[in-house]
Amino acid sequence: MISKSTYLKRHLTSGISDFTLSPPLNITAETFTTVTEFCYGRKIQLKPTNVAAVITAAELLGMKEGDINLRDVAESVFERIVCVEAVTVLRSCLSLFPEVETTSSIVSRCIETVILENEDMDEESVLDVIVEMEHRDFESVVYSLNGRLENHDVLYKLVDLYLKENKYDKLTDEQKTEICNSIDCTKLSPLILVDCVQNPIMPLRFIVRAILAEHLTTRRTITEAATTTAAGSFQQQVEVHRISLREFLQLDTTRRQNAQLKEAMNSTYSRIQTLEKELSCMKKILQDHQAEEEKEKEKEKAKEKELENSVLNSERSASFHVLPIDENSKIRRGGRGSVSSSGFVLDNMIKKNNEMVKYKYNVNSSEGSCHEGNDTQKRATSFRHRFITGLKNTFKIPNSSSNLKDHHQ
For 194-218, what is the mean pLDDT? Predict the structure, then answer.
């Protein structure tokens, strides 16, 4: 293992059996086990979660000499998987700062790969990892990206995002200035320059640099446009656009005020639209409420009409069914149709029939038993006939006195 590591060769001699690293290297036990297995010829397994740690360990231990060394093997694996698993590799680097960036620039290389695949840099997972970095680590990353990127628009977006997050209140002006110094304003597009000038998060020094860069860009654009014109017109255009820094700052201040005024007007207009929508909704609610009240009033009127009609109908029905009682139409006691008359006549008939049955039974009892069955049948038949005849006569008798006379006859 010593033969493959220049770091161990420097610190270990033949007379020393052990030594203490001061300060200790940023190498975990798992990573050191992988390094040891490689030194003894065993097959190692490199994956997105440990390839950055192995590369960092190889750089720290100086294992990059010879035809087959750990650094070259890990770098070849990194180049294959970084295009697919750049975010995973980037997240595994958070615990390896600052060595992971200062020794091999793995973090900046991962970010560069993501930028090449996605120019707008809207990968949320990558942005989340960047926000979690400490300001020293982030500063080393952006300075590394400064030399790698030809256009610094994405670098400005990264810095802007980092400052907008919870880091903004925790960083001092000097720290923010150091981070922003990694951005070369001459490598920013005109639109990004305008955004830099109007960004209140950026430190004042960076805003002044952006204003100067915008001024130089404007002059360069004017110069390039004027090359096709005559010399006289070109000189006139240069004199027109040749203004001092103070005038340019005043112009920029006016531009900012106009932008703020426009934004305030837009917000006021949107607020007015919101109020108009709310007012229309309130009007609709009031109209619906009034319509419901009118419906309730109509229902109450209909109920009152129905109640009046029912009272009138009840009075009419009472006038049709209630008649004055006539003295001549009354049913007198004992008269036709009275209960007493019919009951009295019926009782008299039953008594008369019973007496006749008893009489005939006594008269015929002496005749012998041979005629007993026939007599009984005759008595039953004559009794039914007399009973029905009596009922008929009962309802034909006008009063109780006539019934009594008929009964005695």
Answer: 83
- Distances in whole angstroms, Cα of residue 22 to Cα of each of 19, 25, 26: 10, 8, 11
Q: Is 356 a residue whose pLDDT tops 70?
A: no
Separation between Cα atoms, residue 335 and residue 93, nearest integer Å: 126
Q: On the CB side of 221, how many CA atoms lie within 13 Å of its CA?
A: 9
Q: What is the value of pTM for the model shown?
A: 0.48
Structure tokens at 85: 């698993």
Q: Give the start-end residues of each E strand in 26-172.
A: none
- What is the rounded distance in angstroms from the CA atom of residue 380 to the CA atom of residue 378? 5
Are residues 343 and 403 both part of a single domain?
yes
> Is there a domain that residue 37 lies in?
no
Q: Is residue 109 part of a domain?
A: no
pLDDT digits over 278-291, tens only? 888 888 898 998 88
Digit-coded pLDDT (tens) for 79-135: 888 888 888 888 888 888 888 888 888 888 888 887 777 655 555 667 777 777 887
**Chain CA centroid to CA 60, Å:** 51
Residue span of the structural domain in which 365 resides: 336-408
Residue 5 lies in a domain: no
Average pLDDT, integer, range 187-195? 85
Question: What are the start-end ranges of the H helices in 118-203?
Answer: 124-131, 135-148, 153-164, 167-170, 173-180, 190-197
- Does the residue 142 lie in any domain? no
Distance CA 282, CA 337 (A): 79
- For the chain, the C-alpha Rg in angstroms (whole number) is 61
Distances in whole angstroms, Cα of residue 313 to Cα of each of 70, 88, 305, 317, 391: 112, 91, 12, 6, 45
- The whole-number pLDDT of residue 71 equals 82
Q: Which of 201, 216, 242 is the last residue of a domain?
A: 242
Q: What is the pLDDT of residues 22-37, one digit of tens each?
A: 445 667 888 888 888 8
Residue 232 has what pLDDT? 53
Distance between CA atoms of 210 and 39, rounded to whole angstroms? Answer: 52
**Structure tokens that stand for 263 in this block:** 């934004």
Count: domains in the chain? 3
Pair (212, 267) in one structural domain: no
